[in-house]
Each structure stands twice: as structure tokens, then as C-alpha cells.
Write a structure and sequence with these properties.
The complex is a heterodimer of chains A (about 425) and B (about 525).
Chain A lengths: L1 E3 L25 H7 L3 E7 L1 H11 L9 E5 L2 H4 L5 H15 L5 E6 L1 H5 L4 H12 L4 E6 L9 H12 L12 E4 L4 H13 L5 E4 L15 E4 L5 H9 L3 E2 L7 H15 L4 H26 L3 E4 L6 H12 L2 E7 L4 H10 L6 E3 L3 H11 L3 E4 L1 H9 L4 E3 L1 H5 L8 H19 L2 H7 L1
Parallel strand pairs in A: 2-3, 2-4, 4-5, 6-7, 6-8, 8-9, 10-11, 10-13, 11-12, 13-14
Antiparallel strand pairs in A: 1-12
Helix pairs in contact in A: 7-9, 10-11, 10-12, 11-17, 12-13
Chain B lengths: L1 E3 L7 H11 L3 E6 L8 H7 L8 E3 L4 H4 L3 H16 L3 E6 L1 H6 L3 H6 L7 E3 L9 H17 L12 E5 L8 H14 L3 E6 L5 H5 L6 E4 L2 H15 L11 H14 L18 H6 L10 E6 L1 H14 L3 E7 L5 H11 L3 E3 L3 H11 L3 E4 L1 H10 L3 E3 L18 H13 L5 H9 L25 H10 L9 H8 L3 H18 L6 H11 L2
Helix pairs in contact in B: 1-7, 7-10, 8-17, 13-14, 15-16, 19-21, 20-22, 21-22
The chains are: A alpha/beta (about 425), B alpha/beta (about 525).
The complex binds iron/sulfur cluster.
Chain lengths: ~425, ~525
């Protein structure tokens, strides 16, 4: 485990503690990626475990023929009795026949496919030639030995960037916003950009697979999610410079983020203030509604999505909560430096924690609210702690001004619920 | 390589987890990457367990592969023993670690120490969850009970209950129900395993006279070994349904050396209401309703028998997803004169359901969703477990109370008899227009849209709408909407087979006469 103070967070030499981690693998991000890119199909090349993970994490979504599946490797594939490439081709054949509406097939690598060194990129190139132009084929790794949870999205976006060349004639976008957000949030940001006078912008990933933004040296980009290290590197390799900012969570985060964009595009302060004044006020009021519930409450965040430093910053600056520990499965130090700098000095930030010891620390600190994954939540509730499932921060629209109140509500809800159940008249009578 | 959008069973190591999580004082160290920890949520979210399952994952990463993942495994075993102090340690590998060939069993036994260690070989690329659970339970029973002495004077009226498991379908309540029935019949239940058992309890298994196997997919291999080793007989009747429960009690009473009794005088049988409900006049309309049954083989077979022999339905399809019990399933399908469906591909199941045109589907959560799409009433009878399969109330599937539960949960999705009759009488009243479903159906079937046409399209797409005369179309509309789809399909099939065109009122009644024979 790395425990670092915000001020020395760029040390980079901190040790990592071994021990069990309790996090999803990168395959899990398929669950929101396939909703976002509406003509893409995600085919995991993996094992029965991978298929089982997807359906367990996706829950009810699986029942309405989803745009993801697993090509499950079997004994004969591994024993070399069947040529893996031929087998994969047959699976893909079956898939595209069943789903002719698919325009982009994404092969997703898993632990087993990587351990046996199955060359997915080559398989994707071969299938791409075969299925062009109706369907593009691309690949990335979502394996649990390489990625946690949101890093799957990072790898997917990086692969989109790497392949976005070759559009001839198209002008590169001036602003690219990288990171999955709900459509409704993108639409809100689009309106704000337009009001700021920024017309030429694009979101990554796009809603349709053929709309991957063209990237040139003049493009500027900003990340909407803190976990996009590989995507940022892939973008920078193509020339664009990154607009640095904390992330658009909460009123403060959203204002800082929009302001960084406005500065990069030479928007005047006056115009900026005028554009954001109303939504900013709305966001403040919405958050203020929940502030009494959260103020002074002590919150412990387990590692899950890498959003944890941003969430902690939001809790501290906008709801008055106190942070006991911020866990994150990985820290892109450069990307979250701004977030960590805002946290009060002395807040422990842990990376790569041993879950058992972290559970011990959490119990010992006796927090008012625990933000953790689904595996840990009910056991903590049974011990009497209030918990918030962290997976919701990856699924629910939480970015931007209009969602700032919803974000506060996500943290406040478990506390409100406890109050409702504990303060119900029947309970009061029984206790009096 | 197999394309899977959804699977009925997880990998075999999830089966091992289910056994470990069922027991006390047992811990499993799983050589696995970090993402495999998702399996914890099956227990904490689906079953709402109050503790994490007793599993430690090694969570090795790519950069460990060049070094020694074996060291990581050894360290994880030591840490788990120190922290959890289990009475017994299971060790195994998930699909990824299997490829590394670190040999967890060998590594763990070289650790020394005084905690007994049982290595599990779970071939992830061949086998599935049930197999993994059965194998783990079998290994545990062998390791704990092997070498034990069977006492000379085992009381004949003593038994163990084998098979109930964490994440099993209604297992918690089945155990309560069956244990209660056994006790009422004067049979002592020594041990329930794996659910709630310790390694010491497993060691004491040979001290009972016989074994009650409630879930053969989990416990049959262990029960067979106990029979071979200690000459302990085991039961084969699955007590699902009132008749099967009578047969089960007859079987256990014989094994326990108790006198035979008439079904009605069996202790516990008085709780059965399902038999009377099935005979009450309101149930008349259940007669020969077409039922499609799919699930794990044991539940599917038992449910089909209840449906046909106790409620008077007609089985129009029977299938199961666990191949280990394909033979039993085929035999049962022959009983009902239907083609057995042994598959773990839910798309194939969907096709079979569509083709057999059932009026009720008994299946897993997946079939519930298929049925919902096809607008067919459905009840869930089998794992894979879903949060809805852990109801707060007492809701067994087995024993007499279980039979009552089956009657309620299978019949309520259907139209009530008297209600159906009234609907037909008042079909022209505005409340009973086509889009008004019976009020109690809201929870089970979605709001009516235009599904009949869609369903008809799958069978006789060519001879649809245009081929009906306006009079015939009007007459068709007088048939209550919930049977209209069937009437349309039958009439169109009848017309197509005979080359009749267009379909007239007479064709419709000819078809009705033809199909009602
Ligand atoms: S951790 Fe690896 S093996 Fe497990 S589900 Fe994720 S990709 Fe598949």
C-alpha cells in the first residue's frame, strides 16, 4: 500500500503492499461502454469466468439481448486441437449473422487470452479486412492481470485514438472531451461550450462508431474522467496538448473544468462568468439541500473506480464531509495532482491496498459512511455501518452542474435512509 | 470456442466457493487474478449474506507472471491461515491460474503447519459450477470422513441431509421443511451438509444410518462414496410436490425401519393443501394447459412431474442445462412424450419455447425473461440464483408446504378459472377491451401491445392478416384476447395445410373443431 501525503504525491517511489485486492477487472467497463457506443458489439475472448463476471455485474441488462458476449475458450482450443483463430472466426461469423446492425466489433482481451499470448490485435486486423467496410474490428485489453474496472474504458478509448487516423479530408476537431459520460450530461456540456463560443468540439467515445473524432496537432483535449492515463498518452502521441484541470464533479469541479477549457480557447472571464452563473447557482442550491446530512460526517472510500480522489475532494469542499481514507486502485499522479492538492493535509491516500488490512483500518476508524464495492457493502451494513456502493459512480450521471445535487444525494441517501428507518414512529415508541 | 451471451452456470471454482461459503471453519484460497473477486457479490448481494464468503484470492497481476506467482500463492495461504485460522483449507486455481500450472495443491502441502489442506483440481475449460461444487463436496467428505469408523450400533432412524448449498434455489427453506418432516416421522437428522456443517460434522457423517440427498447435482457423488465406503444407503426421491413427498417419506421410513403408512396418515401430510386446491372446481381450467419446463435437471424433472401428475397440466417441453444429468432428463422427457432439450444455450431454449407455444413456462430467471418477451406467464423453479429467489418469507419448494408454494406460484400467473369465465361472458364490456389485462396479472405480464401478430409471424408468416375475410377477422375479435393468439395460429396453420384462402368464419370453426379433438 502506498500512503502518501498530498504534498509528496509525486514521489513515485512509494512501496506497494501485497495482499488481496477487491476490485473488478477492466472487462466490467463494457457494461457502460456498450450502452454508449450504440452500434458497437464487445466480444470478450476469455473463459466462463469472464462471461460470469459480465452477467453478474450487469445484472438485469443481460436479459435484453445485450451488445456484448464472451467467446469462451475450451479445452480443445488450449490443447491446440482447434486453431484458435479459426474458432474465433466462426464465432464472429455467427455473431455478425445474428446482429447485422453491428458496425464495430471490439475484441476484448482477458487474462486467459493474454496468458496464452493469443494475439488479439492480429486477429482484429484479419477480421477487419474480412468484414470491411460494413463492420470495423478493433481490440483492447480488459484483463484482470492488466486492468482494474475503469481501466478497461481507458484501453478502449486509447485504441480508438490509435485507429482514428486515415480519415482523409476531415478537419481535426479543435476540442476533444475524453471519457464516457451519460448522453444527457454531454448534451449539457455541449450547450455550455456553444454558449462560450466554442463550436468545434467532439466527445470520445462517440455515440456512433463511425464518428470517432479526427485528431490533429492543433486539437486540444480535456479528460472528463481521471482514469484515462493511456488515452491521454495516446492522444498526446498524436500531437494534441492536454488541458489540465480537476474533474467536473460537483459545482467547484465543473466550474474549474469549464474554466480551464474557456481559458484554453481564449474565452473572456466576463463571458465565462455570465454563461456559468445560472447553472452554477442551481448546482450550489441542489448541493446545499444535502449538506446538513453530510457536514462533519466521516467518510472512508475503498478503491474502486479511480474516481475516489475526485469524490473525496467533492465531499470535502462542497458538502463539508471529512475524509478518513481515500483508496484508489491506481493513481495517475499527473492527472489527479490537482485533486490531491485540494484535499486537507494529512488525509491518507492509499493505492493498491490489501483489502483485509483496509477493512481492519476502516473498522478501527469507525466512519459514518463507507464507500465500497458490492462485495463489501452488505457485510459492512450487517456490522452497523452505512455504505454507498461505489459502482454507482461509474454508472449514474454524476458529472456537470445539473448532476451535482444528484452526486451529493448519492452520498446522503444511505444516511437519510438510516434516519428514516431508525426514526420511524414505531421504532421511537419501542425505544422510549 | 463457444459464443455465450449468458450462461446458466459459472465456472467450477464458483462451485467450490459455494461449498466453502456453505460451511463453517473452512477457508478457500483461490489462485486467481483480481477481477475474479467479483464472485463475492454473488453471496453478499444476491443471497444478502452478512459476511464475505471465506475466500482469499491471490490477485496476481501481469507483472507477477515473469516472477514467481507461486510465491504469491504461498504467501496468500500463510496469510489466510493466520488471519482466519480455519479448521480446514481448500486450495484451487481459477481459469487463469490453471494456465500458469503453479500446482496450488503441491505448493500448499509443502507449507507444513497443522491446518489440513485439501487441493482441488477444477478444470475450468471443461467443467462448470455444479461439477465444481459436487467435486469440492466429495473431496471434503472423503477427506473428513475417510478413515472414520462406522459405529456398530447406528440407530436405524438417523440420517444426514446432503446437498443444500449457499446460492442454492430455496435451499434454506427446503432444509427447514424436510428436517421438520423427518423429525415428525421420528427420524433424527444428525447433520445437514454442506450448509452449516463443520469439517468435524463431515467426519461424523458415518454415524447416521442413511443419507437424504436433496440436491443430487451437489451431493450424489459424495453420497455414492459414503455408500461404497460405509454401506450407507441414500435416498433418490426428490420431495418436490405432494405425491413425491409421500413417496419420499415412504422411502425414508423404509430406510429407517419404520412401518409403512397410508399417504394421508403420514405425519406432516396434513399440511398439504395443494392436492385439494388442484381438485377444487376453480382448478378445472388448469386441465391440459401446456407447460414448458426448463432448469437444472433435478428441479426440472421434479417440477414436470408435479405439473403433469398433481396439477393436471400437459408438458409440452422439458429441458435442463446441466449435462451431467442428461440421462435422467431424457428418461423423464420420454415419460411425457416430448423431445428432451439438453443445452446451456439460452437462445436455443428461447427457440424451443417459441416453437412449443406453452401457456405457462416453469424455468430459471432467464426463461422468466424469455416468457416476458413472449407474453407467456412464468414461474421460476430453479437456479441460477437471483435476488428474487431469496424471499424474506418462508418459501420452500420441497415437502408439503413446498407443494402449497408451488401451487400458488405456478397458478397465480395464470388467469383464475372463474375470472377467465367472467371475462369471456363480458368480453364486449368496455372494461374488458383488448388492452385490459386482469388486474392481478400486472405483476407477471407486461402491458399488452400487439404481440399475437408477432408470435404468429414466427410460425406462419405468409398466411397472416390479409388472408382473413373481414367477417372472419371480426369473429376472431370476439374470442377473448388471451386465447386469440392461439386461435389465430391454429386457424392459419389449418388453412395453410389445406390451401384454404381466404380464411372465412367457417374455416375458423372448422379449425376449432379440428384442434379440439
Ligand atoms: S479477472 Fe481475468 S479471468 Fe477474471 S473475469 Fe476478469 S478478465 Fe476474466
Amino acid at each position: 500500500m502506498t500512503v502518501l501525503r498530498p504534498h509528496d504525491c509525486d514521489a513515485g517511489t512509494a512501496q506497494r503492499q501485497r495482499g488481496q485486492r477487491e476490485v473488478f477487472c477492466g472487462l466490467t467497463s463494457i457494461i457502460w461502454l456498450h450502452r454508449k457506443v450504440q452500434d458497437a458489439f464487445f466480444l470478450v475472448v476469455g473463459s466462463r469466468t469472464c462471461a460470469h463476471l459480465l452477467q453478474s455485474a450487469a445484472g438485469v441488462m443481460v436479459f435484453s439481448e445485450p451488445r456484448f458476449a464472451t467467446a469462451i475458450m475450451e479445452e480443445r482450443d488450449l490443447a491446440g486441437m482447434a486453431d484458435m483463430n479459426d474458432e474465433l472466426d466462426a464465432v464472429v461469423e455467427r455473431l455478425v449473422t445474428r446482429r447485422p446492425d453491428i458496425r464495430m466489433l471490439v475484441l476484448v482481451g482477458s487474462c486467459p487470452s493474454e496468458v496464452i499470448k493469443f494475439d488479439l490485435a492480429r486477429a482484429a486486423a484479419r477480421l477487419d479486412r474480412r468484414l470491411a467496410p460494413d463492420c470495423r474490428v478493433t481490440s483492447y485489453s480488459g484483463s484482470g492481470i492488466e486492468t482494474t474496472f475503469t481501466q478497461g474504458e481507458d484501453n478502449f478509448l486509447a485504441s480508438l485514438v490509435e485507429q482514428s487516423a486515415g480519415h482523409d479530408g476531415q478537419q481535426p476537431a479543435r476540442l476533444v472531451v475524453a471519457g464516457c459520460m451519460a448522453d444527457v450530461v454531454e448534451d449539457q456540456f455541449s450547450r455550455l461550450f456553444e454558449q462560450l463560443g466554442i463550436e468545434d468540439f467532439a466527445f470520445l467515445p462517440p455515440r456512433r462508431s463511425n464518428a470517432v473524432p479526427v485528431i490533429g496537432p492543433q486539437t486540444r483535449f480535456i479528460l472528463a474522467q481521471p482514469y484515462l492515463g493511456a488515452t491521454a498518452a495516446a492522444l498526446q502521441a498524436r500531437g494534441p496538448r492536454r488541458i489540465d484541470s480537476i474533474f467536473p464533479l460537483g459545482e467547484v469541479g465543473t466550474t474549474a473544468w469549464l474554466s480551464a477549457v474557456a481559458d484554453a480557447f481564449g474565452v473572456s472571464r466576463a463571458r465565462f462568468e455570465q454563461v456559468v452563473a445560472a447553472p452554477r447557482q442551481r448546482a450550489r442550491e441542489a448541493i446545499a439541500h444535502y449538506r446538513p446530512r453530510l457536514e462533519g460526517r466521516r467518510v472512508f472510500l475503498f478503491p474502486d473506480s479511480q474516481l475516489e480522489p475526485s469524490l473525496a475532494r467533492f465531499l470535502v469542499t462542497e458538502t463539508g464531509a471529512r475524509i478518513v481514507e481515500v483508496g484508489s486502485p491506481y493513481l495517475h499522479r499527473e492527472l489527479v495532482a490537482g485533486e490531491l492538492a485540494i484535499l486537507p493535509p494529512g488525509v491518507p491516500v492509499s493505492e493498491v491496498a490489501d483489502v483485509e488490512r483496509q477493512v481492519d483500518r476502516c473498522r478501527a476508524s469507525d466512519p459514518d459512511l463507507i464507500v465500497c464495492g458490492l462485495g463489501l457493502a452488505n457485510p459492512f451494513e450487517a456490522e452497523g455501518y452505512a455504505t454507498k456502493w461505489s459502482i454507482e459512480f461509474a454508472f449514474a450521471p454524476i458529472h456537470g452542474y445539473e448532476q451535482a445535487g444528484d452526486l451529493a444525494e448519492l452520498f446522503a441517501r444511505p444516511l437519510i435512509r438510516r434516519a428514516v428507518l431508525d426514526d420511524a414512529p414505531a421504532t421511537r415508541e419501542a425505544l422510549s | 470456442m463457444k459464443l455465450a451471451m449468458w450462461t446458466y452456470e459459472g465456472p467450477p471454482h464458483v462451485g467450490a466457493m459455494r461449498i466453502a461459503a456453505s460451511m463453517k471453519d473452512v477457508h478457500l484460497v483461490l489462485h486467481a487474478p483480481q477481477g475474479d473477486t467479483y464472485a463475492d457479490l454473488l453471496f453478499t448481494m444476491i443471497a444478502r449474506d452478512k459476511a464475505r464468503p471465506p475466500v482469499t484470492y491471490t490477485t496476481f497481476q501481469a507483472r507477477d507472471l515473469s516472477g514467481s506467482t507461486a510465491d504469491i500463492f504461498r504467501q496468500a495461504c500463510r496469510d489466510a491461515i493466520d488471519r482466519f485460522r480455519p479448521g480446514l483449507l481448500l486450495v484451487s486455481a481459477s481459469c487463469t491460474a490453471e494456465l500458469l500450472q503453479d500446482d496450488p495443491g503441491g505448493l500448499a502441502s509443502a507449507l507444513g503447519g497443522d491446518v489440513p489442506i485439501i487441493p482441488l483440481e477444477l478444470p475450468s475449460y471443461q467443467k462448470k459450477e455444479f461439477w465444481g461444487a459436487a467435486e469440492t463436496f466429495y473431496r471434503l467428505v472423503r477427506a473428513c470422513a475417510g478413515g472414520q469408523q462406522r459405529p456398530e450400533d447406528v440407530p436405524a432412524n438417523s440420517c444426514n441431509i446432503l446437498g443444500p448449498t449457499a446460492l442454492g434455489f430455496r435451499n434454506r427453506d427446503d432444509v427447514t421443511e424436510i428436517a421438520g418432516l423427518l423429525e415428525a416421522n421420528g427420524i433424527a437428522v444428525r447433520c445437514v451438509a454442506p450448509l452449516g456443517a463443520t469439517p468435524a460434522d463431515l467426519a461424523a457423517l458415518p454415524q447416521a444410518a442413511f443419507n437424504v440427498v436433496l440436491y443430487p447435482e451437489i451431493a450424489e457423488s459424495a453420497a455414492r462414496w459414503l455408500q461404497k465406503t460405509f454401506a450407507m444407503p441414500y435416498t433418490t426421491t426428490i420431495p418436490i410436490g405432494a405425491k413425491a413427498t409421500h413417496a419420499f417419506l415412504a422411502e425414508v421410513r423404509a430406510l429407517a425401519g419404520l412401518p409403512r403408512l397410508e399417504p394421508a396418515s403420514l405425519p406432516g401430510a396434513q399440511a398439504d393443501r395443494s392436492a385439494w386446491y388442484a381438485r377444487s372446481v376453480d382448478s378445472n381450467y388448469l386441465t391440459n394447459k401446456r407447460v414448458f419446463v426448463f432448469g437444472d435437471a433435478a428441479h426440472a424433472i421434479a417440477s414436470a412431474r408435479v405439473a403433469a401428475n398433481e396439477f393436471g397440466f400437459r408438458i409440452c417441453g422439458l429441458g435442463g442445462y446441466n449435462r451431467e444429468f442428461a440421462r435422467e432428463l431424457r428418461a423423464a422427457a420420454a415419460e411425457f412424450g416430448v423431445e428432451p432439450l439438453v443445452t446451456d444455450d439460452h437462445l436455443e431454449v428461447e427457440d424451443a419455447i417459441t416453437a412449443s407455444q406453452p401457456e405457462l413456462v416453469l424455468g430459471t430467471q432467464m426463461e422468466r425473461h424469455i416468457a416476458k418477451r413472449l407474453r407467456i406467464p412464468c414461474a421460476v423453479i430453479s437456479a441460477p440464483a437471483h435476488v428474487q429467489d431469496f424471499p424474506a418469507r418462508y418459501s420452500p419448494q420441497m415437502g408439503f408446504e413446498g407443494a402449497n408454494v408451488l401451487f400458488d406460484s405456478w397458478v397465480h400467473p395464470l388467469m383464475m378459472g372463474l375470472e377467465e369465465h367472467l371475462l369471456a361472458m363480458f368480453r364486449d364490456d368496455f372494461e374488458f377491451h383488448d388492452n385490459a389485462a386482469a388486474s392481478h396479472l400486472a405483476a407477471h405480464s407486461p402491458a399488452p401491445a400487439a404481440p399475437q401478430a408477432a408470435a404468429a409471424g414466427t410460425t406462419t408468416a405468409t398466411a397472416s392478416a390479409g388472408a382473413w375475410t373481414p367477417d372472419a377477422e371480426k369473429e376472431l375479435c370476439k374470442i377473448p384476447f388471451f386465447v386469440r393468439g392461439k386461435a389465430r395460429r391454429n386457424t392459419e396453420r389449418f388453412a395453410a395445410e389445406r390451401g384454404i384462402h381466404p380464411i372465412t368464419v367457417d374455416t375458423m370453426y372448422d379449425a376449432k373443431a379440428h384442434f379440439s379433438r
